[in-house]
Amino acid sequence: MVRLGEVLRDNGHRVVFATTKDWSQRLKSLNFGVELMTEETDGVTGDSADANAESANDLLDNSTPLEKALKSMTILLKEFLPLIEKDEPSLKRIINAVKPDVIISDHVLTLPSIAGSGIPWIFSYSSNPLSMDFGYEDKRLPPSILGLSINSDKNLWEVYRQQLKDARKDDWIKYKDWLISNGCPLIPEELQFWSPSPFANIYMFPKELDYTDVRPLPKTFHRFDCMKRSGNEDTFELPDKLKNRSGKLIYLSLGSMGSADVVLMKRLIAILSKSEHKFIVSK
């Protein structure tokens, strides 16, 4: 979102982030406008990236991928629904005060304050496009978050897909009722988390790794290879131990939540150390 904001800002647009206090200092330092969602985080000086990594720890155990996936289904709505219920009055206040021409939402749930604002809005997604099945499902692809290949056993796809939906059914009904009670004009499909924007939906993923050859997306969906924010003007010099090695230079990052899995990171590094190529690993 920061990179998207930079592009808009640098092209003469006014960009305002609705955020919590733990992100406000960073955003202000990048010359963005900031509207605080709530004052309840007064005194917080940390970074949301740390909180995101901590929240992933609940799923970093020795259970199977399916068990982890089912657990995540029960956690997602239970954690997010109380948060968006609390934030809705603040969002409505901010939208009324800022009067934006366009709203960009980077939330995995549909928000009545945005979908019902009467203002054109864009849904932004920053995860693997396979997991867009939480809002735009296509059965030509396997269910997401299980690590299934497009070439895996298709007979199991529907079994797993239904198990994932059943795991979130009770909380989804509460979510749907809340959306209706708040006058949301856009209700997600049965047991889905979000609805695509009728205006535009953007996501980032390298073209070579995308699934559009199997599942073409509607014209309202737009892909970007990446959304990396600009850095400072410092130059980076490779350490000699990398500079003098042969092979391609490869950068690996799993993001704040992925890299919180220390066992996984150690395993990846052990595998990469046997490669003919050289790596920089973000941890």
From TrEMBL:
Protein's name according to its UniProt entry: UDP-glycosyltransferase
